[in-house]
């Protein structure tokens, strides 16, 4: 989930919680509170209404008592005061008393005198009669003062009565004075004005004060008999829920503004987070992506100079990480282009250097160095000495190189390049290097240490003069120099026009031509078990019968074919040809056929399929096939090689390690390859039996391989003494001139026949 989404959710949840608390806790509290206040208002209004009514009643009562407890009235009711009516009763006095009528009842309860106010509702005599008789009927005799509101035909009437007494309240009671008042609209309006509550009056329905909660407020009815002794009416009014309504509208407004505020907060938070955090983070992410895609370790994140916030600190840290990565990368690159022992540039660096020089110079002077018998130095004097020689040579090369370039190409191979140098400049350097090395070995007591040096002035501008061609030419010169006795300096120009055929470019063309025109031929060299004698197998060795230049050694053209990428085509030819030629013999004499496979062929990937095709096509028994790989190939991709070997073994083909001892791989490493056969290089045999060291070495090797359960083929056995030594110390098979040189097929057939009869008894 994106930060923005997460933040939105978090903020929204917070706001929701906040609003919920307000809605479900605070809001009900306020509502409850307002309802409580409304209830109090209702109660106080009821009190106010009741009090006003009671006041009204007591005012009437006071007037009534004033008139009823009075000597004048007392006399009047006994017919002893004739002027009473004239002096006291008038329309005006009734209005002042604010009563509607006054009725004097004598002791028997009969009407002695009555008068009604005339002004607004003149009543007929009969009406008055009815009212008076209604009231007298309602008065219970014997009770002192009475009051009530009764339902007359003319509307509700409030009445009050009091016994007529002397002014000093002494009796006996001579009658009853009744005063009445119409409870009409004016009366109610008056009451409403006093209480400030709009009141209504209706016939009584309830026995006590009652409050009913309605939509528009609380409906209250107060029966009048709570104030008067008897009453047929009740007053009603409605108390509006003012507090409740106020609170509700206040809350509504509050909630709305709160929501608006929350929304505003939410948006402003989002905006801030987006602009301050997310946008910057996204920028950094984009820049990092760009850096990853570009794979340029020099790139850095842009920095905001004005900001010192955490994101900028993060960007700073990331830039520091990038710097560290750049350093590491530089280190790795440096290591990839440098030889760890001598610290000289390696093959990769050389190729790089060549391509830069090529564009800017006409020619390039090349010196190639290859130590003679370096393996022997290592074995004889120890690896420390071996390393010391290499480091020494590196230092001398650095010393001489001036504006040139020196590199270590392999175990004991070095190269020195200098743009524009000619042979005249190269040769003295080569001679001095030879001399330096001789001095070094004299000083360090390392006898017999020599170096073979090849020189070349390479016209690098020529389009076909590629790096491969330059290296091929150097290989050829050194090879030639080694063949002609090592420890010497030979230049490509020396041999170029001689009997040797070495023009690489021409050779490429000719190799292709040779493939198409059957110029290759296979020779076979027997591999025998000496005692009892039996030819156990043959190694197929290619020969090139060049129409113009005669037979060319594979040692010369195979390295060049490898460099030119022609080895796979040649290898394919060898595969098919050898199986076709040897199928019959192999089956008849139960011979294995050993063929050489070069690194390039393995890397090519198509070898396995081709092998299976040829096996199928020729019907050659895979169990009789051996594939020879060399130790230098083992130095490549181990996993790939293991896969290759596993696939070969799966179809029954055996694996032979060729030229053992030329490389420097450890035994445990070789063991991990599941080899079947080890072929000991002829160099081990050369010094046998004269050289004590070589004897000890070879003997040790036999023991080791025997312990490891590996089959052994000893190569290069030429002399009987050598054979004797091998026989004495091993059960090794033998491949060497002692038995046979590599020979053409016809000759091999002859050999097989001859040896079969020779040793057949
Ligand atoms: P290698 O595989 O080590 O082959 C053995 C070489 O030792 C052969 O040289 C053989 O003639 C030589 N030899 C055998 N016995 C003796 C002996 O008693 N004394 C001496 N001095 N030499 C002996 P050759 O035929 O000139 O082959 C040279 C190299 O060329 C081979 O070395 C092998 O690496 C390569 N080669 C030959 N044929 C093929 C091939 O078909 N394919 C590939 N990839 N390489 C091949
Ligand atoms: Ca071989
Ligand atoms: Ca060999």
Keywords:
Alpha-Beta Plaits; alpha/beta; binds calcium ion; single chain; Beta-Lactamase; six-stranded mixed sheet
CATH architecture title of the largest domain:
Alpha-Beta Barrel
CATH topology of the largest domain: TIM Barrel
Ligand inventory reads: ligand C2E, calcium ion
How helical, in percent, are the residues?
Answer: 40-55%
C-alpha Rg, in Å? 66 Å
* Structural class based on helices, strands and sheet pairing: alpha/beta
For the terminal residues, how far apart are their CA atoms?
Answer: 89 Å
Quantity of strands, as a count: 25
Please tell me the total number of domains.
4
CATH class of the largest domain: Alpha Beta
Query: Helix count, per DSSP?
Result: 26
Low-confidence blocks of residues: none
Choose one word for the global shape: rod-shaped
CATH homologous superfamily annotation of the largest domain? EAL domain
Q: How much strand content do the residues show?
A: 15-25%
Mean pLDDT: 88
Main sheet properties? 10 strands, mixed
């Amino acid at each position: 989930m994106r930060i923005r989404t997460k933040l939105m959710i978090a903020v929204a949840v917070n706001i929701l919680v906040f609003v919920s608390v307000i809605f479900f806790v605070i809001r009900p509290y306020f509502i409850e509170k307002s309802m409580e206040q409304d209830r109090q208002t209702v109660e106080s209004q009821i009190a106010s209404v009741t009090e006003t009514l009671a006041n009204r009643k007591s005012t009437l009562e006071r007037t009534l008592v004033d008139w009823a407890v009075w000597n004048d009235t007392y006399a009047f009711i006994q017919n002893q005061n004739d002027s009473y009516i004239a002096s006291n009763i008038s329309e005006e006095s009734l209005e002042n008393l604010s009563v509607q009528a006054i009725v004097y009842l004598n002791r028997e309860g009969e009407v002695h005198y009555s008068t009604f106010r005339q002004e607004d509702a003149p009543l007929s005599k009969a009406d008055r009669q009815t009212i008076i008789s209604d009231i007298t009927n309602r008065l219970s005799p014997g009770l002192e003062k009475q009051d009530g509101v009764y339902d007359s035909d003319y509307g509700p009437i409030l009445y009050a009565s009091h016994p007529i007494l002397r002014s000093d309240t002494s009796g006996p009671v001579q009658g009853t004075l009744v005063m009445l008042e119409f409870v009409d609209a004016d009366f109610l309006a008056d009451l409403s004005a006093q209480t400030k509550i709009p009141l209504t009056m209706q016939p009584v329905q309830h026995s006590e004060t009652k409050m009913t909660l309605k939509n528009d407020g609380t409906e209250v009815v107060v029966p009048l008999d709570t104030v008067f002794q008897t009453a047929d009416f009740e007053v009603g009014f409605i108390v509006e829920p003012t507090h409740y309504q106020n609170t509700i509208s206040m809350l509504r407004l509050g909630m709305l503004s709160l929501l608006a505020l929350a929304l505003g907060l939410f948006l402003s938070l989002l905006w801030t987070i987006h602009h301050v955090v997310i946008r910057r983070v996204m920028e950094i992410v984009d820049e990092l992506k760009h850096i990853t895609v570009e794979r340029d370790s020099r790139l850095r994140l842009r920095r905001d100079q004005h900001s010192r916030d955490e994101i900028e600190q993060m960007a700073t840290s990331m830039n520091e990480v990038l710097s560290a990565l750049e350093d590491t990368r530089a280190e790795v690159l440096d290591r990839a282009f440098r030889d760890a022992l001598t610290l000289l540039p390696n093959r990769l660096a050389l190729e790089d250097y060549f391509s830069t020089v090529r564009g800017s110079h006409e020619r390039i002077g090349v010196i190639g160095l290859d130590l003679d018998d370096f393996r022997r130095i290592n074995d004889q004097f120890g690896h420390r000495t071996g390393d010391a020689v290499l480091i020494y040579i590196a230092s001398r090369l650095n010393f001489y190189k001036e504006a040139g370039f020196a590199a270590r190409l392999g175990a004991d191979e070095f190269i020195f390049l200098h743009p524009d140098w000619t042979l005249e400049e190269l040769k003295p350097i080569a001679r001095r290097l030879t001399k330096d090395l001789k001095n070094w070995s004299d000083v360090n007591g390392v006898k017999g240490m020599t170096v073979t040096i090849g020189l070349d002035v390479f016209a690098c501008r020529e389009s076909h003069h590629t790096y491969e061609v330059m290296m091929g030419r150097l290989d050829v010169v050194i090879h030639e120099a080694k063949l002609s006795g090592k420890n010497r300096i030979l230049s490509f120009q020396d041999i170029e026009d001689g009997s040797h055929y070495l023009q690489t470019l021409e050779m490429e063309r000719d190799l292709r031509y040779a493939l198409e025109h059957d110029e290759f031929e296979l020779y076979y060299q027997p591999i025998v078990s000496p005692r009892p004698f039996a030819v156990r197998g043959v190694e197929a060795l290619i020969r090139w019968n060049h129409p113009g230049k005669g037979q060319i050694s594979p040692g010369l053209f195979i390295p060049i074919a490898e460099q030119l990428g022609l080895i796979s085509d040649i290898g394919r030819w060898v595969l098919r040809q050898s199986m076709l030629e040897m199928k019959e013999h192999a089956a008849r004499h139960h011979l294995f056929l050993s063929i050489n496979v070069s690194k390039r062929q393995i890397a090519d990937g198509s070898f396995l399929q081709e092998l299976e095709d040829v096996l199928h096509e020729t019907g050659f028994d895979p169990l009789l096939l051996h594939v020879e790989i060399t130790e230098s190939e083992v130095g490549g991709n181990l996993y790939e090689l293991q896969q290759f070997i596993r696939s070969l073994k799966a179809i029954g083909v055996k694996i032979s390690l060729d030229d053992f001892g030329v490389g420097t791989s450890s035994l445990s490493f070789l063991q991990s390859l599941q080899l079947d056969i080890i072929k000991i290089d002829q160099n081990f045999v050369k010094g046998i039996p004269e050289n004590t060291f070589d004897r000890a070495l070879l003997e040790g090797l036999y023991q080791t391989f025997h312990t490891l359960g590996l089959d052994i083929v000893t190569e290069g056995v030429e002399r009987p003494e050598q054979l004797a030594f091998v026989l004495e110390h091993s059960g090794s098979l033998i491949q060497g001139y002692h038995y046979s040189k590599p020979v053409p097929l016809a000759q091999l057939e002859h050999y097989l026949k001859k040896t079969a009869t020779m040793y057949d008894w």
